[in-house]
Amino acid sequence: MQVRRLSLTNFRNYARLELDLPEGVILLHGDNAQGKTNLLEAIYFLATTRSPHASQDAQLINWDAMMTDEPVVVGRIVADIERPDNPCHLEMRLIVEDSGNWARNGQSAFRREALVNRRKVRLMDLLGHLRVVLFLPEDVDLVTGPPANRRRYLNVTLCQVDSDYCRDLSAYNKVLEQRNALLRRMAEGQTRNAADVLQILTEKLVEPGSRVIQRRARFIAEMGREAQEIHFQDLIGGKESLRLGYLPGWSANGRRAVDEQLADGEALQADPDIGAVAERFAAELAAAQPADLGRGSSSVGPHRDDWAVLVNGKDLGMFGSRGQVRTGVLALKLAEINWMKATTADIPILLLDEVIAELDLHRREALLAYITNQVRGKGMAQALLTTTDPGMFPDDFLSQATGLRIQAGRVIAGEP
Ligand SMILES: Nc1ncnc2c1ncn2[C@@H]1O[C@H](COP(=O)(O)OP(=O)(O)O)[C@@H](O)[C@H]1O
Ligand SMILES: [Mg+2]
């Protein structure tokens, strides 16, 4: 798939942008703070309905637009998507309702609206029309950061290809919130005789939760296979082994050795029978219930999941060198492209933000060769890369890329 035309209104430092994008490799270049990352962010937002940063949503709207007297300010990301099956027109509206309030104290009501082919849809239904793989320099946090980063990655990636997963996750989170609220009231002694309700909410967690666990376990297994292949062939040359391990969110895991947790995860990866997963999840919930009643929240389930990247059998996040972590994340991102291709029978768009500068010469060449080979062989339709310094790219690569110069929220066509 490809983004054919991108229109931005009041998005970040783009007051207004109308941009036609060609197929193949596109190199966005320009000085710092001109809007290169913002442009990738816009495409990512349309694909995932979220920002890659955990920043406040209202920050996405152009500041100048927020400073006017208009009570309602709308930011827009609009794109024409070209796909083998059905081309489509996507729109995301970012709406700030009391912008005056924002100017005074940074608070305001913010909501998003999604449209597919000019008809309003639920945010969830925007997903799957445009698929991207984004690679940011800060993605090393995926390996070295807290488990929440890795869960977010699972959710964003799976939601782009699997609407059932997205629905199950949303259903699970809703029940989880209710269960936690009840547990909190019970722990504070505000609610008596609520055992029945707790029982019902616990049972309601099992079905969507088990499907989330099952899908994640399968995803980790599939991604592990793809990543290992890429890691071996293109990046390392067969010197290191790379494995992904699922660490299910059972309460005992905090006290257990990683090896034991991995064995548990491997059992799930190898045998993702839904009945067995549900049985295990229900048993874990029951075992944790006394403790949950004491702490006033749910300690077991996919909201506590984690996964690990293992290089030569060791947790990369704990023991990897910076270089190894970078290579591991790169392998993961390339694996994600192949995984999406295999799962959806369509090719996602690759968004690479400044990562070339982070890689040593060997890996830089391996990555650029991978991209050009994929594009040449039609294994990839469109890739957008950003850089402050096109001099870092070999001539061979530049001769195949379309250069777009970004300057102060404007795009100026021009070769680097
Ligand atoms: N909501 C916003 N309105 C206007 N400008 C913004 C907004 N959010 C970020 N910016 C500006 O965008 C610029 C950063 O753009 P970015 O895409 O990160 O640059 P780069 O080209 O270095 O990747 C900064 O100057 C920042 O102040
Ligand atoms: Mg940038």
Outline the structure in words.
There is one protein chain. This protein is an alpha/beta fold and 416 residues long. The protein has two domains: 2-131 and 346-413, Rossmann fold, CATH 3.40.50.300; 139-319, Glutathione S-transferase Yfyf (Class Pi), Chain A, domain 2. 47% of the residues lie in helices and 22% in strands. The protein has 13 helices and 15 strands. The chain has helices at 36-48, 63-66, 99-105, 141-144, 147-161, 163-187, 195-236, 258-270, 274-295, 316-319, 322-344, 361-376, 395-400, and strands at residues 2-11, 14-20, 24-29, 73-82, 88-96, 110-116, 119-121, 132-135, 242-247, 306-311, 314-315, 349-353, 382-387, 402-407, 410-413. Helix 5 crosses helix 6 (163-187), helix 6 (163-187) crosses helix 7 and helix 7 (195-236) packs across helix 11. The longest helix has 42 residues, at 195-236. The protein starts with a strand and ends with a strand. The structure holds adenosine-5'-diphosphate and magnesium ion.
Draw up the topology in text:
Elements: E1 2-11, E2 14-20, E3 24-29, H1 36-48, H2 63-66, E4 73-82, E5 88-96, H3 99-105, E6 110-116, E7 119-121, E8 132-135, H4 141-144, H5 147-161, H6 163-187, H7 195-236, E9 242-247, H8 258-270, H9 274-295, E10 306-311, E11 314-315, H10 316-319, H11 322-344, E12 349-353, H12 361-376, E13 382-387, H13 395-400, E14 402-407, E15 410-413
Parallel strand pairs: 3-13, 3-14, 8-12, 12-13
Antiparallel strand pairs: 1-2, 1-4, 4-5, 5-6, 6-7, 9-10, 10-11, 14-15
The protein binds adenosine-5'-diphosphate and magnesium ion.
Adenosine-5'-diphosphate binds at residues 12-13, 30, 32-38, 59, 61-63, 406.
